[in-house]
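Fresh eyes needed here. Kindly weigh in on this sequence plus structure tokens:
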Amino acid sequence: MKELWAKFRTVFFSIQSKIAFYPSLFAVFGFLLAFVMIYAENRGVSAYLMENTPTLVVNNGDTALTILSACITGLISMMVFSFSMVMVLLNQASTNFSPRLLPGLISNKKHQVILGVYLATILYCIFIAISIQPDGEDYQVPGFSVLMGIIFTVICMGAFIYFIHTISQSIQINNILDGIYQTAKKRLNYLIEDPADTTGSFPDSKDWPEFYAEKSGYFQHLNLENLKAICDKKKINLHILPVKGVFVLKGIPLLKTSKKIDEEAFQEIRDSIVFSRGELVSRNYALAFKQITEIIVKAMSPGINDPGTAMNGIDYLTELWAMRMQKNDFSVHITNENNKIKIDVISFEELMYNVMASLRTYCKQDITIVQKLGLMFYYLQTQESIDPDFYKVIDKEAQTLLLDAYKEITNPIDQKILKGISEKLHLKIDP
């Protein structure tokens, strides 16, 4: 039972980010509700209401069909418009900011739920309309079901107003940046509080048997509880080799075990590792650094030339770096029977180099952005860190940025500002 639940969670994590996930669930609910209401009508619910509250029941078949047809037509129009707005949002985000933002925007549950409410109500009204017998007796008209269809349509109208509000907010870059930051912050806090970050000992896995990836895809997530159960069952230690978020190619080493295991056990472990063709910040905080960096780089491109957005992005990066300094560069989990699972993570040094390499290339000629980055490094120098070596990484990247900027910026006044930044950071510029 536990293994079945673990497989269900693995499948759920792989499909919940799809734009059709929640609309499909709501559509099924609307379809089933229609048949429940038809069954209730056959049991006489409308006849009972007709006797007690006749003002709430539509007792004319033609009127009921007219109302339901108007509801269906209006809801289809609203749904088409809403889908069009979502496509406009995705297109603008991809063009103006970064294509990497699309998986996060598509997985926005608010938009999915609203579209699902539309779809459920449309299906409900269609099947209720089919059940109407306009030439029959009054009790043969599903008056109560029609009333419910009207109520659901009114709810859809309220959802449409809310949708217009959220879509107008979602398309603003400040809200996009804040959404990325909040998601990454939540993930980082979870990892920082994870006891695995304080457990550093793990056996040397250099000579352990290797197992290879059977298909390509982004390493998005793993079912840790299932892996712990497998390790206890097989009495093994486990080393997951790829860093979460990287694209794993078919045939490269995927994991190592402390002793040889059979093919069935490997498949159990393999089924606990989720691969996908997309990436989500909620499962990989490092993606937030990439997305914000790409937004900054795009903002500094000649075609857009928006240093204000770049500065906002640097502010969010600064906060995320300060949080990342509280996390170890390793993750070792201990099972119930003291077996161990090591998960390789992207190091602080590698992550900062990847971010700053892009920012140096596109921002080194702008003194205002260099000043903002200098302020970021100064702030990070004053923050507590779980590893003293992180400060060396910060100083190294700051000095590299200032050296590149000093070579690119030739104005004497701006060079004086660069020297002031280096002195504040206790660094020496030696072009």
The mean pLDDT is 82. The longest strand covers residues 217-222. Residues 282-328+345-424 form one domain. The two ends are 65 Å apart (CA to CA).
